[in-house]
Amino acid sequence: MDARRQLMEYLTGKWVPPVLATLAELGVADELVAKPLTTSELGVRVGADSRALHRVLRAAASVGVFVEVGDGRFGLTETASLLRSDVPGSLRDAARMFALEPFWSPYAQLTETVRTGEPAFDQVFGMSIYEYLQANPGAAQIFGATVASFHSQALKAIIASHDFSPYQTVVDVGGGSGNLLIELLQAYPECRGVLLELDSVLPTASSTIAAAGLSDRIELVAGDFFAAVPAGDAYLVKSNLHNFGDDKALELLHVVRRGNAPVLVIETMIPAGNDPHYSKFDDIEMMTIAGGDDRTEQEWSELVTAAGFAVRAVLPADERFSILIADPIYVSS
């Protein structure tokens, strides 16, 4: 591919997310499970103009998401199947989220973020992303579902990469719906879990944990991880610290340090070199939307050390996540 064509593909790539988001919002993939359908048939089922729907599906098919099979009918591809609502690892909510105004319009102010170092989201909406989500439960629901779906396929690899048997009670700090604890406790029947989360998140977590049959082994604790953490033999902090700049991330780690137990920081780590990696653009998302940072292994190690921990090991879990294991440093008086 010549340089001009390559750059044009990057520039016009902005057209793809809204197309996929529209098809996800309409639930088109769910309607195509049994067989390909015409856009007239689909339009009736999903409540859309058949001509407009044809144009959007044709665009999606051109990048391998859905396929036109002839006679005006469209069907699923393997990629399009991930937009179904009923498949493991569904990315339907992720497709919907990335085209929502709060996750789209701040990028128009990215240049200002680069000039000032301040998140564009706050400039556009006059509040942080976290304040916005608290005030907009619909967006918060899609955001939570997106986080769960984005990380679901990595959970088994994360648990398999470390021996959790020494820990009788594991505290998941800001653990969302509890999926990581569920995976952990299913692999280690002798272990118990504590989920620390906001009041607003706990009802979803309670349902998720109950569905896994683990309500008797996971304690739900409502709280603010910047204030205090429950007692435990180890602390999991997954995909939380990258939401914050160094000062707030260090504040959170200092609170965890007061628990006097090992911390397992589970995050994506930016590799050296020019090769593509999820973390390099996730870092831009963090900078633009949340004011956070993805970090290199060295930067993560320095942050954890500054909070009063000694890094024991860094273990790769899968292509995105690594586990940094650190022990509290005890200073003799």
Automatic annotation (TrEMBL):
InterPro entries xref list: COMT-like, COMT_C, COMT_dimerisation, SAM-dependent_MTases_sf, WH-like_DNA-bd_sf, WH_DNA-bd_sf
Domain O-methyltransferase C-terminal: 107-310
Pfam family, one: Methyltransf_2
Keywords in alphabetical order: Methyltransferase, S-adenosyl-L-methionine, Transferase
An example Gene Ontology molecular-function term: O-methyltransferase activity
Active site: H242 (proton acceptor)
Gene Ontology biological process terms from the UniProt entry: methylation
Domain O-methyltransferase dimerisation: 8-83
Name of the protein in question: SAM-dependent methyltransferase
Source species taxonomy: Bacteria, Bacillati, Actinomycetota, Actinomycetes, Propionibacteriales
